[in-house]
Amino acid sequence: GENVEQHPSTLSVQEGDSAVIKCTYSDSASNYFPWYKQELGKRPQLIIDIRSNVGEKKDQRIAVTLNKTAKHFSLHITETQPEDSAVYFCAASSGEASKIIFGSGTRLSIRP
Amino acid sequence: DAGVIQSPRHEVTEMGQEVTLRCKPISGHNSLFWYRQTMMRGLELLIYFNNNVPIDDSGMPEDRFSAKMPNASFSTLKIQPSEPRDSAVYFCASSQGTGNTIYFGEGSWLTVV
Q1: Phi then psi dihedrals of residue B109, to 5 deg
Q2: Tens digit of pLDDT for each residue in B29-40?
Q3: DSSP string, B5-21
Q4: Interface touch B43/A1, C-beta < 8 Å
Q5: If you average pLDDT over residues A18-46, what whole number do you get?
Q6: Which residues of chain A neighbour B42 with C-beta distances below 8 Å?
């Protein structure tokens, strides 16, 4: 089955700097890669996603890149702000299986 | 839309008691997922349903756990008997179709003492 690995587990960056979180997946059939943000005591919420027919996607300060050959994808947050502090999860899904497997999460802290 | 609705939001129970968690998916969604979140193990997929049919329950930890989806608008996750190591946040999530965005409920915070 699918296995998703996520690094780093914790990340601290200065406000205004960029943050990068990386994930790898094992199932070459996976074709949907969402990213979720979870604030303390809240539910995970989708912030951006990418499908296997696209190499990069941007939404304001957030971007995701996908390398299908290497089976890895990354989340990039630019111009970080205090409200970006949260736990971020990557995930992978094989459309046919309709099963979304999450990485272990990255706790991002933004230093003022 | 009200989103995915879970109940109870919080439950404290004694070891050995039966626990039933409930979920109402978003109307029109045909896939439903139960996840468990702990500090040690992160977000684990326990079981998921497609069109009310259990597709994969390989994540269910043991026979004490069972899940049902009697209709498109309701699912339960039952733990019997409960143990302290079952303490976690249990999330229900739903999606429309396969390989699409899943939306989480607010979670059921379970503490077994």
Answers
A1: -90, 110
A2: 999 999 999 988
A3: EEE-SEEEE-TT--EEE
A4: no
A5: 95
A6: 89, 102-105
Q: Give the pLDDT of residue B40.
A: 87
Indicate yes or no: CB of A95 within 8 angstroms of CB of B99. Answer: yes
Give B61's pLDDT tier (boundaries 50, 70, 90): confident
Are B45 and A101 inside 8 Å of each other by CB? yes
CB atoms within 10 A of CB A63: 18
Give the model's confidence band at A98: pLDDT under 50 very low, under 70 low, under 90 confident, else very high: low
Q: Which residue of B has its CA nearest to A32?
A: B99
B103 contacts chain A (CB < 8 A): yes
pLDDT confidence of residue B34: 97
Two tokens, residue A39: 């604030």
Whether residue B94 lies within 8 A of chain A, CB to CB, comes out as no
If you count residue pairs, one on A and one on B, with CB atoms under 8 Å apart, how many are there? 55
Are the beta carbons of B99 and A94 separated by less than 8 Å? yes
Whole-angstrom distance between the N-terminal and C-terminal Cα of chain B? Answer: 36
Q: How many beta carbons lie within 10 A of that of residue A9, not counting itself?
A: 13
Q: Which helix (H) or strand (E) segment is A75 a member of?
A: strand A72-77
What is the average pLDDT across B52-66? 92
Nearest to A32 by CA among A13, A52, A12: A52
- Residue with token string 């309709």: A98
Given a cut of 70, whether residue A84 has pLDDT beyond it is yes
Distance from CA of B22 to the nearest CA of A (A): 16
**Rounded CA Rg of chain A:** 13
